[in-house]
């Protein structure tokens, strides 16, 4: 952990809930949870259950959160029905007849499904919440994993998870921001690994437009992140799964209470539990200033966050559109 970093107490993204937790870490067709019940991973690190972001029970979601910070607060790392909330407290989280995990309302209408095809019946599957924070759907006969929440992340990247890119199709396992602090539906920003010859981490706006990049991976760290060489040495690992045709990024720090979250404003924040694991702090965030924003000053423009205005043209060039430039829109170069 970096002692010289700017440290900010994290006061947002905590949500109130007073549901009861069962002793099990498993969901089956006969062992399901109703709002406001929850389950806890075997080592008590994570909890899964129903929550409301604004605490007023208007919208209800199934999520996973750290089992820390006090019983009335939660730091949500994954949301199932993020785009289709329940509108009351009649929700159920269970295994359906086709063997998939489902979120149902009081009328048994599906608000979310793990959506795995070719499952025989519900007696052959069970879901388990692991101490890694991963929710895994198992086939009871083969004992193999057939779906897990790490493959469909929300806004949080934590230890043992892999963000990846399929080198053949370009399909990504990536983070997607919440729309706002009170609305976990998919927001404007996403973050993941780009499939260039030399990999980089990108934050995108609306899925395609670059907003920030880490700089290329040099075999040990991303060269565009200041101090990563000394800070994260041996923490991150970039690898390839040749059988699946994917390239992936994962991390493991000595302090396993470190994680990264993509905010609704497009910042990728490093967060960690401190003070006896009762509070969260933000240690780093990217982009760190306006000049870190991809293409802020456009082609042949130079950015200096210490100057006003921050953008200027390189020697021998002038603004492409002087009116836009004077209004502070420098992206045209």
From TrEMBL:
Domain Bulb-type lectin: 24-150
Gene3D superfamilies given in the database record: Bulb-type lectin domain
Signal peptide interval: 1-23
GO biological process, one term: recognition of pollen
Species the sequence originates in: Citrus sinensis (Sweet orange)
InterPro entries: Bulb-type_lectin_dom, Bulb-type_lectin_dom_sf, EGF, S_locus_glycoprot_dom
Pfam family name, one: B_lectin
Keywords assigned by UniProt, alphabetized: Disulfide bond, EGF-like domain, Glycoprotein, Signal
Domain EGF-like: 287-323
Stored PROSITE patterns: BULB_LECTIN (PS50927), EGF_3 (PS50026)
Record lineage: Eukaryota, Viridiplantae, Streptophyta, Embryophyta, Tracheophyta
Protein name, UniProt field: Bulb-type lectin domain-containing protein
Record bears the keyword Disulfide bond: yes
